[in-house]
Amino acid sequence: LRGIIMARLKDKVAIITGAAQGIGAEYARAMAKEGAKIVIADIDNGEKLENEIINNGGNAINIITDVSQEDSVEKTVQLTVKEYGRVDILVNNAAIFGTLKPKPFLNITVEEWDQLMSVNVRGAFICIKSVIPFMQKQQYGKIVNIASGTLFKGSPMMLHYVTSKGAVMTMTRCVSREVGDDNICINTLAPGYVMSENVTGSESFDESFADFITQTRALKRRQLPNDLVGAMIFLASSDSDFMTGQCVVVDGGSVNH
Ligand code: NAD
Questions:
Q1: Fewer beta carbons under 10 A from the terminal one: N or C of the chain?
Q2: pLDDT digit string (tens) for 173-196?
Q3: Residue 38's beta-bridge partner residues?
């Protein structure tokens, strides 16, 4: 078998939201390596990653997208279909997260609540709604919604965020029941506390908190973006074709679900 390259996503077209940096960028690199054509759909410019993937022999386009705005998402999906002809995979990874400062819920304003929900929950809903007609036409599609281990723990100091991730998991379950007849699978991936660049670069990053979380795990080390790649490729590829509506926790065994 020497020389045979496994390309589990060969010629699949994947829209990854929030992929300009952090964990989303790591999904994009890994999926490109597996042969997928990548659409980087972030409100930030993903040009650097686009060039990196192309320079490594892959396919990628960067389309600036605000997932909270329906017209922006619809334009991105149309451009994707124009460029690559189809949409096989959607990863709903964009979220207001890395830039959040932990605070007691009594100090969260209604404006902050609405803004976070418009990205983390409405954004996922809009993206799903926009790709489904294309997936229905193909009678094939894979959607991976990114939640968080915090939803199982009821983690304090980020009430809007944790609530939004609970909604993302619930949305996954409901949608799976409505798209199963079109052979579309939708699952949730829930990471633990991951050392992405916005997390470690944040003013509120605290080494002792990271150590504390590490001690809650069966596998006692810090989690890196790359730790999520195996589960992502599984959920995005035909390896998981009879799995839908589920939530996979990848956190070193902190949460048991
Ligand atoms: P991050 O904050 O670095 O990345 C989020 C990305 O989403 C950024 O590139 C940002 O520009 C983009 N984004 C924000 N608003 C957007 C909008 N309106 N439209 C399009 N893109 C937008 O976070 P990360 O650590 O890389 O996390 C990625 C995902 O994983 C998020 O959904 C996060 O909630 C989830 N997650 C992260 C951790 C962790 O500890 N890092 C843990 C559990 C879950």
A1: N
A2: 999 999 999 999 999 999 999 999
A3: 14, 60
